Amino acid sequence: MRQVEEAVKAEILAVLRATLPPSSIPDPDARPRVCLFLGVNGSGKTTTIGKFAKLLIDEGGRVILAGADTFRAAAIEQLQLWGRRVGADVVCHQAGADPSAVVFDALQAAVARRATHLLIDTAGRLHTKRNLMEELKKIHRIASRQMPGAPHERFMVLDATSGLNALVQAREFHDAVGLTGLVLTKLDGTAKGGVVVAIAQHLKVPIAFVGLGEGLDDLQPFSPEAFTDALFAAS
User: Which of 88, 109, 171, 227 is buried deepest, with most CB atoms within 10 A?
Assistant: First the structure.
């Protein structure tokens, strides 16, 4: 039995390690570095943006947040709260505004203020709503038109408890914009998120970060070894 477990662990590690991003990032001097955050409602997307902003600011970065989730007024308010909490500027319009217009203004502000990073929050889209996916593609085009190569990162935030439906969601987002990384939230130290192994295997998208709790510093770089050990520790 022990041999079987070790063989399975080795297979999972091989899958996860195969998707790790390269040590050198294309255009490392691109400023601002534009990161698009995607995911369905309730995945922890806006909270992840706030934590990621703090991580960057702690490293000496200057961060601007863009509130392109204009469908919910609460989403804009939540992003503004995170901006005040971590010391990041926030560019937003009123609820119901064109998300692409927010991204356009945010990119101009990020260049003018010499920001190192622009983190874009987007609406909690459902993969079954084609019009919203088309809007996401529009945001991508606007960013690319304003700054060649942008958005440099397209992170999808996944709730570790969401199960196999996460694979369907990730595939749709990947088809729309080409994901560069996954962020796995709500792990809370237990063996959750095994579906991410399937996503990594099928889509070849690396897991960039994991969220382990509610604290400001709970967003951590992903470790294939630690993740695999946690999967088997509680099994």
Answer: 88
